[in-house]
Amino acid sequence: MDKRKLIPTLKIIHIALVLGLVILGAISYFYGVGFVTNFEVTGDIFIYLVPIFAILGYFGSIYLFRKTVTAINKNDSLNKKLIQYQKALIVKFACIEAPAILALLIFMRNGYVLYFNIAVCLVIYLAIQTPTRDKLVKNLQLKPKEQKKLYKKNKNAKPLS
User: Is 122 within the bounds of a domain?
Assistant: First the structure.
């Protein structure tokens, strides 16, 4: 794995996931049944499932990411650490994206504005999770020697303290 290409690759994956949700949101908004503000709780199991799934996705993404990152051995090679970090981020993104997709699909089906709002909140949260080199260094607690390997192409880059 080329160490310098990890962050650009993760950014492309991240942008694709966010744009996919935005496109699905636009499709569900323009081609769905429209906004329904008054709805009945009876007979609609999704009124419970979508918010619960969204909450589980949000907290699950945080928990799984932290658990995976803290499980990375500090003595492993930089390559191995980066592979584990990439896996952790992809799992984090998936945990956020899955409930957003569910909320948008259910919104498209019945138009309840609650589902659309949940999806928008999840998309905004996912958009904020942009991977950066600084976040990688901070999350993996890389040593200055490892940081230099990440910044090898830029000779003026200084390791973060």
Answer: yes
Residue with tokens 């569900």: 28
In the chain, which residue ranges form alpha helices assigned H by DSSP? 6-31, 46-70, 78-110, 113-128, 133-140, 144-150
List the end-to-end C-alpha distance of the chain, in Å, as a whole number. Answer: 25
Predicted confidence (pLDDT) per residue in 7-44, tens digit: 999 999 999 999 999 999 999 999 988 887 777 777 78
Q: Is residue 126 part of a domain?
A: yes
**What pTM does this model have?**
0.88
Residue 160 falls inside a structural domain: no
CB 65 within 8 A of CB 93: no
Domain count, the chain: 1
